[in-house]
What we know:
Elements: H1 3-44, E1 48-54, H2 73-81, E2 83-89, H3 95-104, E3 119-120, H4 128-134, E4 138-143, E5 149-150, H5 180-190, E6 197-202, H6 214-217, H7 235-264, E7 271-277, H8 292-295, E8 296-302, E9 311-318, H9 322-329, H10 344-348, E10 361-366, E11 381-386, E12 389-394, H11 422-428, H12 436-444, E13 450-454, H13 472-488, H14 512-515
Parallel strand pairs: 1-6, 1-7, 2-9, 3-5, 4-6
Antiparallel strand pairs: 2-8, 7-8, 10-11, 11-12, 12-13
Amino acid sequence: MSYKMLSKYREFVFLNIYSRVCIFVLFFSVHSCQTKKTVKKEVEKRPNILFCIVDDQSFIHTSINGTAEVNTPNFDRIAKSGVLFNNAYCNASSCAPSRASILTGRNIWEIEEGGLLFGGLPKQFSTFSSLLKKSGYETGYTGKGYMPASHKEPYQKQPLAEELNAVKLNAPKYINRKDYSGNFNVFMEKRVKDKPFFFWYGSHEAHRAYNSGDGIKAGKDISKIKVPGFLPDNDLIRSDIADYYNEIEWSDAHLGRMLQALEHAGELENTIVIVTADNGMPFPRAKGTCYDYGTHMPLAVCWGNKLKGGNNVNDFISFIDFAPTILEAAGITIPKGITGKSFLNVLLSNKSGLVDKSRDKVFTALERHAYCRQEGLTYPIRTIRKGDWLYIMNFEPDRWPAGDPDFYSPHQGFYGDIDKSPSRTYILDKEDKTAADYYFNITVGKRPDVELYNVKEDPYQLNNVAFKEINKSLCKELKNELFTYLSKTNDPRMMGKAPWDNYPYYFDGFSQKHLLPIGKRDNKNK
């Protein structure tokens, strides 16, 4: 080959290679830009939120926690594919106040009438669901929302979302006929497909009443049921607990159908699913108290492949933390009035154990649950739950904690802070002659101003060690920490005020003149 021909050949090869390189670079650049746009689009895609809240379920009563004779495969699925929280606490062990604290991200002493059962949520307290809607989310709820409470002036008419309860089903006696999963399907079909959504599933179960014996009929072996130490251990109590388990399973089954609907719609991967309960089991010395079986809640959260799954977290989570967590995940600025602290960092850490060392405590409270004391007086409690310790301050120890023994409520009977049940009747009627006074006294008897329990050693809080000499310095330390927080968050109790004693009690179907405190009886149509 001549030199001239060789030169032309080299030029041809060079141009060929050069053109291919240019094409490759151009393709790579275009592809890179498209990838960046796709990634940016994915980042900007906001998550859906499915918030599932059972009515009256204590923390331990799920199958993943090892409780015999209760089967919660769908709660377990959420926990296994996401995070199981071991230390989640409601702000108040009472339906409406607990739900109000979730929606507002504030403690019950910060939301006026919203801190009471059969109260109302004042308009100045925004809710995370309303902020989601304003930012472009489709919102809705089925089952039990924010209630029982007044939704009339001067309170918020609907602080949660649009109600979807039209779809009904045939249900066993005392099970609510609302088809929760059916109503969720309606929401999913009608929603705007390119918008993120928030949906609240509020099961009415496992609230009383129960159809006695349904748990046994469902095949539960009551000999395997573990009775908490604050209740008598006998077949009547075990059967009552079996009925309670049966209703938890009803709630869990609807959760399972909702997860299937999300999968069918291709939305499960981009949905934050939160499953919890509003307060503890509806049994004596649980619901309506600040002991662990009243305030310690089940909590599991999953979020597609953003969470690796199987994490078991010990950080203390308060219900006032839900609002800021959800808002942060949705990319919405958290309002200044919210007291709770987002735990999104804990969720996304993909770690187990104690993830955020600052989450070593929570605060719980109670004012009025039912109207069960003369003139509607409350039973004010504030607590700090830190490490293995539960410190309780009873501000009015001269009052009866479960209701005045001589005060009859037309809808609750005597000792109205305890839901009517076979377990309650058994204890109040002292049918267990060998231990009658013991269970009666720990259920309805007056309590000292200070209580201290080592929850690890005393899981049922039966041994008050506040007055032991060895615990004096600990009590002082916990009281100081509790009172510092209450003062910082403007609790009226820290200023010697008790506005809750004069707030109205909006119970439909009964005479407001009979039920309202003296100072409010002339305002019965408010």
